[in-house]
Amino acid sequence: MKEWDTFPSITKGKGIWLIDSKGNKIIDAVGSMWCNVWGHSNPQLVKAITNQSKRIQHSSLFNLTNEPVEKLANNLIKISPGMHKVFFSDNGSSAMEIAIKMALQYWKNIGEPNKTQIATVENGYHGDTFGAMSVGYVPEFFEKFKKQLFTTVQFPVPNKYRVPKGFNFSDYQNDCLDKIEKRFSKQDNIAAFIMESGAQMAGGVIIYPKGFQKKIRNICKKYGVLFVLDEIATGFGRLGSMTQYQEQKSIPDIVAYGKMLTGGYLTMAATLANKKIYDSFSGEFNEWKHLFHGHTYTGNPIAASVANENFNMYQKNNLIKKIQSTSKVFTDYHQRISEIDIVGDIRHKGMLMGIELVSDKNKKTPIRTKKSINKVFFEEGKKHGIYFRTLGNIVMLVPPLAITEKELNLLLDRTIKTIEAVRIQII
Ligand SMILES: Cc1ncc(COP(=O)(O)O)c(C=O)c1O
Predict the structure, then answer these.
(1) Residue nearest to atom 13 of ligand 1 (CA)
(2) Which residues are 87's β-sheet partners?
């Protein structure tokens, strides 16, 4: 895009601050693409990286294992009720590709080869690789590749801000669930239902209503469809609980984690499966039931070490409780933010806030700008000392999870100033 001709070059980071080559300090409101937990340059995490780097930097998980990754697998199983084994990869998209392959092959392994379809929700997002784009089809992002993607069965997600005419929100939720149940009762070739856990992030910060995810899980159980959850962006405290699936009482068959797993310092992801799935892959060699999947950097010991230290720090600092308390600061600002006349809706849970900007509050028309709104907001944010990346007309606040109350107040004050400044520019 021509409008993005130059970029600030980030040379240092400290806590919530990013510092560029010119010495400008900006608050990282994006949490380094939603993955930062403890802020930048945390000494304990850096130490875990340097200590492990001196021992072994990389050793593959093909026929071998290593101590940090074994420990990490145990840590992951401990926080994941119902899960039995861990499959490591090095980014969220791959973790989701693995989840898709596991779900599809499971049915072949147990002798039900007709179960080949995948059900998803509209505007879900699971990454940028082809399988992930197929199951997480956000039209604005992926329309150019539509012909190359495999087809899925898609269902709507209830968005409280945009309830279709003729419905109240409760009816609308029931209608969404009815659509799933009706389809599943007629179609017996659905292998799995895949969705983000707790909320849609890239699809517009849509926080599911209470009970919605659990009800989908129950429908899946009733009709013999595997339930696959993506906790890559929403787990590990982002929405205020270690796993959203526990909060939502919706234990999946397969779950994926990524982003915050290493505190946001190195690249690692994981796909966990329950015993039923795992056992289906452990036949004799000549039965070919094993999963053909593996990446060069799968199970990297440095990434695993920093992830283990990250786990220690969650426990020692009681991070989930801290997030639940700090995130009340967001609530304190609801009123002030909603009074700005280009703010249509505010959606907030845990350490996530989405502010939907509209040009007409009654009609809920998304605001438009000559340049992309992302660019306009980014430039204005920089002037106010914040790094923003908006999702179209939705301003996302996804700060490092351990941000303090004082820092969050500062971020929100500056966010209000930025929205006001953008309002003046466009009106
Ligand atoms: C819910 C969700 N799943 C998967 C991914 C893909 O992760 P990655 O960017 O590490 O490939 C993302 C990335 O934003 C995500 O938000």
Answers:
(1) 127
(2) 271
**Listed residue (304, 210, 284, 216) closest to 253, CA to CA:** 216
Q: Is 196 in the pocket of ligand 1 (CB under 6 A)?
A: yes
Q: Could you tell me the distance, in angstroms and rounded to a whole number, from the CA of residue 362 to the centre of ligand 1? A: 33
- Mean pLDDT, the chain cut into blocks of 10 residues (427 residues total): 90 98 97 98 98 97 97 98 98 98 98 98 97 94 95 97 96 97 98 98 97 98 98 98 98 98 98 98 94 96 98 98 98 98 97 97 91 92 97 97 98 98 89
Q: What are phi and psi of 149, to 5 degrees?
A: -85, 150
- Strands 394-397 and 254-257, by their bridges, are unpaired
The Cα–Cα gap between 353 and 331 comes to: 10
Ligand 1 contact via 127 beta carbon (within 6 Å): yes
What are the tokens at 70? Answer: 């074994």
> 205 CB less than 6 Å from ligand 1?
no
Atom number of ligand 1 nearest to Cα 234: 1
| Atom nearest to 269 CA in ligand 1 | 10
Q: How far is the C-alpha of 208 from the C-alpha of 196, rounded, in Å? A: 10
Q: Is the CB of 266 under 6 A from ligand 1?
A: no
Check residue 378 and report its DSSP letter: H
φ, ψ of residue 397 in degrees (nearest 5): -110, 115
Beta strands, E only, 51-122: 85-89, 117-121
